[in-house]
Amino acid sequence: MTYFTDYFNINEEILDNYGAFNISLINDLPLFIDPFLLFGSKKKEYIELHNSMLKYLTFLKAKSEIGEITEGEIKSWYKFSEVKQNWLGYSIEGNSGSGLGMKFGKAMSDNMHVVYDDLNKETITISSHIEKVGLFQLGVGKDNISDFSCNLIKSYLLAYTEIFAKQYLKKEQVRTVNVEKVYFDYKLERWMPQSFVLPYIKNDYVILTPKDLLTKDENWINSHDLRGNFLGVCNSIPNVQLRSEINNYYRSQLPAPVLVGKGRRKKYKKPSQKDIAKAVNSTIQQFPAILNYYIKAKEENKEGAKNVSEQKVNEVEIIFKDNVQRLIAQLIEDTGFYKIEAESSFDEAMKRVVFLKDVIENKDGYRLFYYKGELIKREADLQVIYRLTWFSSPFDVNREVNNGRGPVDYSISKGVHNKTLVEFKLASNSKLKMNLENQVDIYEKASDTKQSIKVILYFDNSELAKVNGILKELKLENNSSIVLIDAGGDKPSASNMKKKS
């Protein structure tokens, strides 16, 4: 049992018709709430939700303008736990993320009056947007925006889930839960609790989220997009004087041209990506109006946001639900994957890796890594897929456990002294050699274990040659804890698994 419909014995069509995403109750799936989809929607309740978010921003801005906000007020108004019960996002372990802490609260409170200087009196954009704070380089990323948005609309999500639970679930599948920080009382200036009847499993409640609020990778309004098309945004500004001032200032922030080379090979050295990023950030700080023009362009393409969101949600459904369900069915039918009962965490982890290798290479399991004919080559996606296949194991399986020296993909354990680290890498990873050379030794010391498995996926012969070359150079070609998996599909399998002589 991996997904919501499995645990609660609900027909997938019922959940789909309701409009909710079929979440995994094993591990978070890589989706986020995009607040722009509230703004761009034609649904009255979504527009009201967006307005309620702006109302809360107005309250925060007013407090910011009065003077320095105390630590207690930051904790009360800005600090939120991650809404882990929706099982969305990239969690550190299971479905428990870090949430919104003091760093986020301090960054927001210090800059509210600057970032939202035109709040409720916009002249360039149609509306203000909570995502704007993530454009101002305050260390506020997509996870923060999604977590903040989710907390601000939590009352809606809880009510949305409650309606479904009362209509489709049995009494023994639900529980009345008192949830903290559900709605904001503007008279008391504090977040208030509220009770709901919700799906309940694993000693916690579950929240459903409408598909049409979700996206993958980036919000529609995002910093990478702004900075990647910075000159295009600036050149679209209709005010000729402002456009000229911005361009002049931007050029002044770039390093002066330096002539390098000798003789006829002399040429001016171009600014590095780091130089350009620094100049862009400096220019945005000097001319915050750039953000408004960027947002305006995004507002004018509401349908684009909706279409991109639908495509990304569909991609996640196919990869992490449909494809994984087929893989699990195949593992149940064709192998002993779920019958493995090893005393050693290393043996269990290795046997499951070898089973996966066989299914991927010899039983068309490679199709898992394709979407609309295109390869999916993201290590983070691979890690989630692997975790979903471990739904039945006596061992604890924790994803990206951070024990002080950086995260490792998985820690497989049964007790303190029976632990194995499993790390997934793609052959195309530019840092593969460095990782093989240093990383696992560091992780083993930090996690107090001497057992680790490195799984490397390659998709063509050139990638295989690269990996074999690295292993030979590092004298690891006979290391039995390194497993290579051919996920290319169309070619005969190479001798992929390295064995000690």
Fold and architecture overview:
It is a single chain. This protein has 501 residues and is α+β, with helices and mostly antiparallel strands. Helices cover 45% and strands 15% of the residues. The protein has 18 helices and 14 strands. A hairpin with a 5-residue loop joins strand 11 and strand 12. Helix 4 packs across helix 6, helix 5 packs across helix 6 and helix 11 crosses helix 12. The longest helix has 33 residues. It is globular, with a radius of gyration of 25 Å. The two termini are 40 Å apart. The relative contact order is 0.09.
Distance between the termini: 40 Å
The dominant shape is: globular
Arrangement of strands in the largest sheet: 10-11-12-13-14
Mean pLDDT, nearest integer? 83
User: What share of residues are in beta strands?
Assistant: 5-15%
Number of strands: 14
Low-confidence parts: 91-97, 491-501
Helix content: 40-55%
* Rounded Rg: 25 Å
Number of helices: 18
Category by helix and strand content = alpha+beta
Q: Sheet bearing the most strands, described?
A: 5 strands, mixed
